[in-house]
Design goal:
The structure is a single chain. This protein has three helices and 33 strands. The protein has about 425 residues and is mainly β. It has two domains: about 280 residues, Neuraminidase; about 120 residues, Rossmann fold. Helix 1 packs across helix 3.
């Protein structure tokens, strides 16, 4: 049964948030000041051999653009990167037959120049060496602190031109780091670099969720000695209390238009699903059952809400209209399925299932009901789709520490983001930025 109470138990090294059927364990450690470390395992079914040259004069920039592009493409699992050995600018004459003989189907070249206003002009070309044709080219003027973003955008362009779907390297992630007695809500690039702290607290922070436009994050904070739902502007740091009712206020999820949040509240007894405007007004109850209804998630089109309920005797995932009403059960395999997340195209449902004592990540094809296990670990939590729907990020354990893992939706490509100090949990993958 889903736990019918929510309590906060503390020990010297562990904080367990027990409630709504989910146990979040955040082990104490020294605060991690370094960026996350990426470890890659697994590759795509058919890797594309691509040569990436060092960009001409890129040493003048704060970051090495070509190295960031290489790391992005390698992390995706779908590219076999070939080093050119020498820098090549976008104006360099290309010997196509030479690159074909070296096994490269594509070639990336570019340059970095400093502009009079202090910005950097980053240029690149993507060349099809087989067809001896240019596939793409970009020119970006970037402030010094934005050269990393420029590199990610180039990697996104390469991914889209060669894979056929939009890349997500220039997106951001948010997660919670626990170190000692401090909790930090952090925001970083999708590769774990460029970390910024959005919130510090001596009490737990859980369930962060990006707004659809990427400017705000909703989350649950225990700083008032009880769970309260906030929305925070990431630029101004201004916060709005969205739900602070009697009992538990938890599990915020944004509507696709960014105007509302679905939340789980126990204000009237058992935890049920509500919707509320992003400014905290207009609270409306959607479910009214004798069980626990929690973890609501809007569908991609905003017409439905998926949620976890124990109305069938154990936690399973259900779907109802975004206006409430009758719900349909979605998961039937196993006796314990929680934490629903819907892919951006609405075709796949990710969730955490307990099978043989292990909490693991699964994906369900909503059209065929075909289920696929995506992880081989035992303590997985908090799945979150990349905005292009190609990957799922989730929290797991790595060497007795909390770490973030990323897996492709077909299960072939995996990588982890971890740190030597601090525990990392509660990931949420941000949207495409305009």
């Amino acid at each position: 049964m889903i736990m019918r109470t929510t309590r906060l138990a503390r020990t010297a090294r562990t904080v367990k948030l027990i409630g709504l059927g989910i146990i979040f364990t955040l082990a104490g450690a020294q605060l991690a000041q370094a960026q996350l470390r990426v470890e890659i395992s697994g590759v795509g079914a058919n890797q594309i051999p691509i040569a990436i040259a060092a960009f001409a004069d890129e040493s003048i920039a704060p970051q090495q653009v070509s190295a960031i592009i290489k790391a992005d493409l390698q992390r995706s699992g779908y590219f076999k990167v070939i080093d050119t050995g020498v820098p090549m600018s976008e104006t360099t004459q290309v010997n196509y037959s030479d690159w074909k003989s070296r096994g490269a189907d594509a070639l990336v070249v570019g340059s970095v120049q400093r502009l009079a206003d202090g910005r950097f002009d980053v240029r690149y070309r993507l060349i099809d060496t087989v067809k001896a044709a240019q596939l793409s080219a970009l020119a970006q003027a970037a402030a010094p602190q934005m050269t990393r973003v420029s590199a990610h955008k180039i990697a996104d362009d390469i991914y889209e031109k060669l894979i056929g779907s939009r890349g997500a390297f220039a997106t951001r992630i948010a997660y919670v780091t626990k170190a000692g007695r401090e909790y930090r809500l952090e925001v970083a690039d999708a590769d774990g670099e460029g970390t910024q702290v959005a919130l510090r607290s001596n009490e737990p922070i859980i369930s962060p969720a990006w707004s659809p436009d990427g400017t705000r994050v909703a989350y649950v904070s225990f700083e008032a000695r009880k769970p309260v739902v906030y929305v925070q502007d990431l630029v101004t740091k201004q916060r709005t209390v969205v739900a602070n009712y009697k009992g538990s206020n938890s599990a915020p999820s944004w509507s696709p238009d960014g105007k509302r949040l679905a939340v789980a509240l126990s204000r009237d007894g058992l935890t049920q699903v509500y919707v509320v405007n992003a400014d905290g007004s207009g609270l409306r109850r959607l479910t009214s059952t004798n069980g626990i209804d929690t973890e609501p998630q809007f569908s991609a089109d905003g017409q439905s809400i998926y949620f976890t309920s124990d109305r069938s005797g154990g936690p399973q995932i259900y779907k109802m209209s975004a206006n409430g009403g009758d719900a349909q059960r979605v998961t039937f395999n196993g006796t314990y399925n929680i934490s629903p997340r819907v892919a951006p195209d609405g075709k796949t449902l990710a969730y955490i299932a307990r099978r043989d004592g292990k909490f693991q990540l699964y994906a369900l094809d909503l059209a065929t009901s075909q289920e696929l296990r995506l992880s081989d670990t035992a303590k997985d939590e908090s799945p979150s789709f990349s905005p292009n729907g190609k990957y799922i990020m989730y929290a797991t354990d790595s060497g007795r520490r909390g770490a973030l893992a990323v897996v492709s939706v077909d299960g072939r490509v995996r990588h982890t983001l971890s740190t030597q100090a601090g525990d990392i949990r509660e990931p949420t993958w941000g949207p495409f930025m305009k």
